Amino acid sequence: MSKNKDLAVVAVSGGMDSCVTAAIANQNYKLAFAHINYRQRTEKRELRAFNEIADFFNVKERLVIDYTHLSKIGGSSLTDKDIEVTKADLSNKEIPTSYVPFRNANILSACVSWAEVLKAKAVFIGAVHEDSSGYPDCRPEFFSAF
Hints:
Layout: E1 7-11, H1 16-26, E2 30-37, H2 43-56, E3 61-66, H3 69-73, H4 103-118, E4 122-125, H5 140-145
Parallel strand pairs: 1-2, 1-4, 2-3
């Protein structure tokens, strides 16, 4: 990796989308990784994967943020054990129970704030509209508006 590369902040959950996004960002940027814990059911496993991916890409700049307010707000089966997690159904037109209200905006806001401090030139987030199960904050319109 060239030391002359500009820096990019990458939101990394630890899943496949963010791993692929990190690989894409790594082609042209030096990486800084941000991870958000919001008391999601998979929090420990995601954090472990985040660190494993950061180790793989030799990322030194790492930021883990606790957004516990997302679980306090509620409304998602990912943060509320009293709400049943529904199976993914890509043909369903309804927003699934696993949607965390406005999560990606919260993640992007944190990444942009950190990017300003680091003087990063780009921010990356891995969100795929086609397999998002209807999440409003994975739609192209959301990212255009953001």
